[in-house]
Structure formats: C-alpha cells, structure tokens
Amino acid sequence: MSGGRRHIGVAERRARLAVRHRLAGPARATAPAEVAEALVALHGSDPATVYLAVGARLAEAAKTVPETERALYEDRTLVRMHGMRHTVFVFPAELTAVVHASTGLTVAARERAHLLKDMAQAGAPDAAWLAEVESAALAALARLGQATATELSAAEPRLREQFTYAAGKSYEGVHTVSTRLLRVLGVEGKVVRGRPLGSWTSSQFRWAPAPDHAELDPAAAQAVLLDRWLHACGPATEADLKWWTGWRVTEVRRALTAIGAQPVTLDEGDTGYVTAGDLPPVTEPSRPWAALLPALDPTAMAWQQRDWYLPPELRPLLFDRSGNVGPTVWWNGLVVGGWAQRRDGEIVWRILDPGIGREAEQAIAAEAERLRGWVGTAKVTPRFRTPVERELSE
C-alpha cells in the first residue's frame, strides 16, 4: 500500500493480462464471442486480425474461421463497425448501442461536416442533394440486404459522382461520393460492414444495414464502456484511457467518477485505475504461456503506456512509423519477438530477447505450429508492415 492505495506491480499486471485476455492456456475461450466480450473490442481495420486474435485465444483453434464467420454473419453476435478513434472494430452485439452513443456520435458529426465542406469547396452538389442520395442508397441497401459500393452505385448512380479533394495541394485527390458517404454512414451507425467478397483475409467487403439499437445517453454510455474496458485492461492510467477511447480528459474523468473507479499505484510511479471491487490480488497462471498475436492485436494496442509489457528498444522493430504494431511473440506477459508468414505459408519467428530460455522457445514453437495448423493454406500479410515482419516474410 502507498498512501492508503493498493499497489499493482508489473508481475500482477501481466497476470491480469494473461487471464482476462484469454491468453494463458487454462483461460482460453470456447467461442469467438467469449473472446470479444473479454477484450471488449477486436481491431477490425485489417480483417485477418479479427480471426488471428480469436484463434490465439480459442481452446480449439481449428474452429476459428467457421465459428468467427458464423458469429459475424449468421448469428450476428459480433458486429464490425466504427468505434473509438474512428477505427473499425468488431464488438459484441450488445455493445453496439454503447459504442455508438459513447464515441460514434461525436466522430460522426465531425465526419459529415468534413464531407459537406469538401464537397462545397469542390463545387459539388449541396447538402440537399446529398440527403437525397443518402436516402436512396439506404433504401437500396435495405432491398438488397448486403451490397458492395459498386452494387449500390448501380442501384443509385449518383453515388458515382466524383469531386476533387484539396485542390491545388500536395495531397490533392479525387473522391467518389460512395466512398465518403458510406464511411460517414458507418460512423453514424446506419450501415455496418458485411461479408467479405473473398476469404476471411479479404479486405473487400459488402455493406449491410446496421442492426437496430436503442439510443443511449452519451455520458451513461461512456460509463458503461469504460467500466467494461477497465475490467479487461485495468489498471490503466488516464493517458491510457484517453488514448484508447479518443475522448477528452474531462469525459474520461467523468466516466471514472460515474463507475466508482479505484485509484492504485503502479511501478512506474503513475496512478492507475481499476473498477470498483477489483482490488483483490490476481495470481499468476499455474503454467507459463506463450502466444503469437497478430498485427493490431487488441492486447498489444490496448495501452498507450506499454513499457511494462513491451521493452522500449523493441518498438522500432515491431511498429510501423504510424504507431501500428505488427505481429508479436509473447512469453509470460512480455513481448519477446516478432513473427511472420512466408510466401510458402511457413510461420517463422524471431526472438529479440536472447535470455528467455529453452522452455520459452519450445512453447513459442508449439504456438507457431498451432497457428499453422488452423491457418492452413491461407496467406496473411498485415496491412501495416513492420521491419521484423517484412524481413521474416521474405
């Protein structure tokens, strides 16, 4: 205890991560929905990440692809939609209304304003015209059930209209109304991403009408989301919470107060927070564990302050220049290397911490074989390439 506050050190934080993120062997999940519920959100910017993140945490990894596809496209227990920081995530269906109210509304207002401004500056049709096109596109999507942007444009040709963005500037480009409008509608919670056109690794997808959900009070929704995430990832600092949610610090503090979050001290000297009632110690898993997590994995990307699980000297090797993490190798709650898939499908890895020992190396090799077993002939290339991943994949 420090000043009456509970202290949670690095070892216990790694133990919490192992159990609550379903990474230690006995903690692995039985279904993709369990994984999403445990993590709150699965990064969905790169479609393959969703499956690789689930597969790393399922007790029966062979079920990864069929069970995840069923959850996403048949049972609809998982929904891919825009969320925090205007990033695409996969959420448990019961959280869609919470995410929409807590983060989506603010981002949506900004995105629509930007679209209207860009069209006006380009001399494109006005807001009334865009409203007509939007209404027609949503009606067409309701009839079709699911459709690509091209298929929607066939039903509503005005979606093919183009306008010049940032004319005269170095980043000038030509935008199509369909691309920008569907993005706005996604953030507004009116459409969601449906089945991909190809396999589970494909980044080409269809759009589908968003499921109905209740309209919640934004402050109440923020409290719910923060409580869920803090249970999964606490202790976390205000900086971590602000970064993950994309909220203003005043919103973070309001939500912390609303849920009765408890302050704790951390090894770095910072103040962290856990949910009410989450102060009892968490013991380490009974057995050591290894994991091969994908690029953009929600565990690797959960916190802004990462030194307690990611040695700073490894960051230049495992992240791209925009701060996106690549595939990582874990041993007992610490990132110790990176991995990749070669052109022939072989899973290869590199240990960047030479002191981990033979037991760790054997466990990592077993995880690589486990991954290869369910990925099969599918080829996975991360959307955001990192130095170690590029080198290993050659």
UniProtKB/TrEMBL annotation:
Q: Name one GO molecular function term.
A: DNA binding
The protein's matches in Pfam families, at most eight in alphabetical order, are given as: AlkZ-like (PF06224)
Q: Which UniProt keywords apply?
A: DNA-binding
Q: Which InterPro entries match?
A: AlkZ-like (IPR009351)
Domain of life of the native organism: Bacteria
Name-wise, this protein is: Winged helix DNA-binding domain-containing protein
